[in-house]
């Protein structure tokens, strides 16, 4: 599926933890326990270059993941990785249930009404307590079945019904 990301971001390295090289990672996955399943960690720098490390351990601490990697054994080595992203190849992403989608696959998708009117391109997903909200063409569209009728990931099109008051 062209146009879809090859890698999904699991989190971002925000600093070092302790003197032994553990990384403090801010998770961007809905399930931070996912880090405990990693055997290897793929780190991506700001230029998009990838490096692979073996994972020695992962722990959750107050919403932050503490990640220990092979070859990162002191605070300076850990600090050097600040602002790197932790990514996972699409092929290793957790499987989806029916009617579930990877958020990364929705960005850039054309949003049209059920009558074919082009509303814009999905450029933001806002997480709320009740449901996500999609932003496209200046409109905020609740991610509920009454509004989001179809999502065609391969075709890169989301079909919506605008309820009263959404324009």
Structure report:
- The protein has 167 residues and is mainly beta.
- The protein has helices spanning 75-79, 103-106, and strands spanning 7-17, 22-27, 40-44, 50-61, 64-69, 85-89, 110-113, 118-127, 132-136, 139-142, 148-152, 157-160.
- The model has no long low-confidence stretch (mean pLDDT 91).
- The protein is built from two helices and twelve strands.
- Helix content is 5%, strand content 46%.
Please identify the oligomeric state. single chain
What structural category arises from helix and sheet content?
mainly beta
Query: What is the 3D shape?
Result: elongated
Rg, nearest Å: 19 Å
β-sheet strand percentage = over 45%
Q: In the CATH classification, which architecture of the largest domain applies?
A: Beta Barrel
CATH superfamily of the largest domain: RimM
Q: Which consecutive residue ranges, at least 5 long each, have pLDDT under 50?
A: none
SSE pattern = EEEEEHEHEEEEEE
Name of the top-level CATH class of the largest domain: Mainly Beta
Question: What's the structural domain tally?
Answer: 2
Describe the main β-sheet briefly.
6 strands, antiparallel, barrel
* Order of the strands making up the biggest sheet: 1-2-5-4-3-6
CATH topology of the largest domain: Elongation Factor Tu (Ef-tu), domain 3
Approximately how much helix is present in the residues? under 10%
**Taking all residues together, what is the mean pLDDT?**
91
Number of β-strand runs: 12
Number of helices: 2
């Amino acid at each position: 599926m062209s146009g879809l990301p090859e890698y999904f971001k699991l989190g971002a390295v925000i600093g070092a933890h302790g003197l032994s090289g553990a990384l403090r990672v801010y998770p961007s996955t809905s399930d931070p326990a996912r880090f405990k399943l990693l055997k290897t960690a793929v780190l991506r720098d700001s230029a998009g270059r990838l490096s692979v490390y073996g994972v020695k351990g992962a722990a959750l601490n107050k919403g932050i993941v503490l990640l220990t990697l092979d070859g990162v054994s002191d605070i300076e080595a850990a600090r050097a990785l600040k602002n790197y992203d932790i990514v996972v190849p699409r092929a290793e992403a957790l499987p989806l249930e029916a009617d579930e989608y990877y958020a990364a696959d929705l960005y850039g998708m054309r949003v049209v009404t059920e009558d074919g009117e082009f509303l814009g391109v999905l450029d933001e997903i806002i997480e709320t307590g009740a449901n996500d909200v999609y932003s496209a063409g200046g409109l905020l569209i609740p991610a509920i079945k009454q509004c989001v009728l179809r999502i065609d990931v391969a075709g890169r099109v989301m079909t919506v019904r605008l309820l009263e008051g959404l324009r």
